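task queued by scheduler; priority normal; single chain, no ligands, no partner chains; default sampling; output format set to structure tokens
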Amino acid sequence: MNSFDEAVSAEDISGDNSIALQVGTKSNKIIKVSFEDMIAVGLGLAGSEHKLQITTRKKVNAAINVVDRALQKALGQQTDIGALQSSLSYTAKNLTVSGENVTVAESTLRDANMATEMTAYTKHTILDRVPKENKRNSMMFRCLAKI
């Protein structure tokens, strides 16, 4: 791709030349992105039919209108890109917070599992240390046995 004449296209081209960005944790969380043709020909500023001429007042007014439409198209595209950037930034922050929440929940579950295991270990250690003859009459033994 050494020249600007070459192009690369996606395998699955959409009808409107847009791309869909997966932005959430669910399959339907997508943002569809498309850009308008912003080269001089696409803006109406160049090409065989659109040569801007400023030789007469009428042609100057026509050229001003063409430039004004091109400017409006460029500003509209800039607005769309800004909105897309804002949406992607918001999504990135939400995904970061969601990831942190998952990490905290996983840690809490791991702590609860550890506490359960430590309780069971402590119970068995105490029960093993109580002499067998005291196990039958011991209130502590009866309480621990129920856990």
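post-processing summary
- The first strand starts at residue 19 and ends at 22.
- The helical segments are 57-129, 132-137, 139-146.
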